[in-house]
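During the reporting period the student researcher (J.K.) took over the structure-prediction task from the postdoctoral fellow and processed the backlog of single-chain submissions. One of the processed entries is reproduced below for the supervisory committee.
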Amino acid sequence: MSEAFWSGWWWPAATGLIGFVYVALLVRQWLQRRKPHQLAWAIGFLFYAVAAVMEAWSERTGAWDPTVYRIYIVLAASLVGFLGLGTLYLISKRPIWGHAYLAFLVVCLAVFFYGTFTTELLYDKLIPGITVGGTALGPGGSFPRVMSLPFNITGTLLLLGGSTLSVIRFLPKREYRYRVWANVLIIVGTLVIAGAGSMARAGRTVGLYPAEMIASAILLAGFLMAGTLEKGAQAVKQRLSEEQAAGRS
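J.K. obtained the following structure tokens:
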């Protein structure tokens, strides 16, 4: 198939629509268990879905509305930070670390929004689709473009580091092996997103939109599997009960 097919507006549109379903699933999980990691992941996927819809609109219309672009670039750059926040809440025994990182993200988000709405855009760089990246904000390393780094670096480290730590922690525990596979999915999904983003920044954007959709599905599967300890705890109770019954017989 042609490059135009793989770069068509329908890919990010589908990713956005599916993303809203993902948000609903995570919010439902949060309403049932009230765990902060579930809400953080829901926020991250909400940013993901809205940004994808904005990509689709720019591709479909052949233009970026400046206001839409300003909102888009902040959401697209910051979503990985909130996904990382969810992982931090999940693996940390003390919620204070998650609260501190949340405060950091909120401050960075406010500064990023301020910067994007007070900086004159480079309109010759404002081309449709994700290929524009942050180039319309100015050269790399300039403000506010540099504000994407606190989200991307810390969020990616938390996703990969937290998931790797969880794999090591749960691998010896038979009843919690499902958490191992959950974190493997999170690692794979994170690497797919990071790889696709790196290729886009290098100018190789063919297949980027399908990669976004695949990565979001892999991440959601990992998050939903990793989001609860109840399954493992019930398996442990059942095993102990069976061992006690066997000991009495």
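The committee noted the following: The chain has a mean pLDDT of 86.
J.K. will present the remaining backlog at the next meeting.
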